[in-house]
Design brief:
- The protein has about 150 residues and is mainly beta.
- Helix content is about 0%, strand content about 45%.
- The chain has no helices and 12 strands.
- It has strands spanning about 5-10, 15, 20-30, 35-40, 50-55, 60-65, 70-80, 85-95, 95-100, 115-120, 125-130, 140-145.
- It has a 5-stranded mixed beta sheet, with no helix packed on it. A 3-stranded antiparallel beta sheet has the order 1-3-6, with no helix packed on it.
- It starts with 6 loop residues before the first strand and ends in a 10-residue tail after the last strand.
Length: about 150
């Protein structure tokens, strides 16, 4: 049973993308520095992922590796050794590519412009496009773009 002075909180879990690790954190009171808590993250697949966290200066944090959770919502529960829980929720966004349609056939001397919109992908994430040709040949193109976001005026 938790001690009456024990308090544990989680910060609102972020909206993240599948391609990036993300941090979860919270605060404590009544727990000594060095106290180990367990942070459990459960995605839409129902699989629990447990991460140990150590209380330092009344706070804790963990990093969830990229690709750990499927797209959709997720629940986070931090639990003290005495069983006191604190829960929050967040969202994992899947990268989405909305490509423009391609012609059904392309001649050997034709130029084709590819375009599309990529959303929910962090800046600098490599993007790979593969084009399959006759006989199973494949051309692969990979690039990444770092775009500075201008502050609103």
């Amino acid at each position: 049973m938790p001690a009456p002075s024990e308090k544990l909180s989680t910060v609102l879990a972020p909206t993240v993308t599948l391609a990036q690790p993300f941090a979860l954190s919270g605060t404590t009171s009544g727990l000594a520095d060095g106290t180990q808590i367990t942070v459990t993250v459960v995605g839409t697949d129902g699989v629990p992922h447990n991460y140990p966290a150590t209380v330092t200066g009344g706070a804790w944090s963990v990093t969830v590796p990229a690709g750990t959770l499927p797209a959709g919502s997720y629940d986070v529960t931090a639990t003290t050794p005495s069983g006191l829980p604190a829960t929050t929720q967040g969202t994992v966004l899947a990268p989405v590519l909305a490509p423009a349609p391609l012609p059904a056939t392309i001649g050997p001397s034709e130029t084709v412009n590819l375009s599309g919109t990529l959303t929910n992908v962090p800046v600098g994430t490599p993007v790979t496009i593969e084009l399959a040709g006759p006989g199973g040949s494949v051309q692969t193109f990979t690039w990444s773009i770092d775009v500075a976001v201008a502050a609103p005026r």
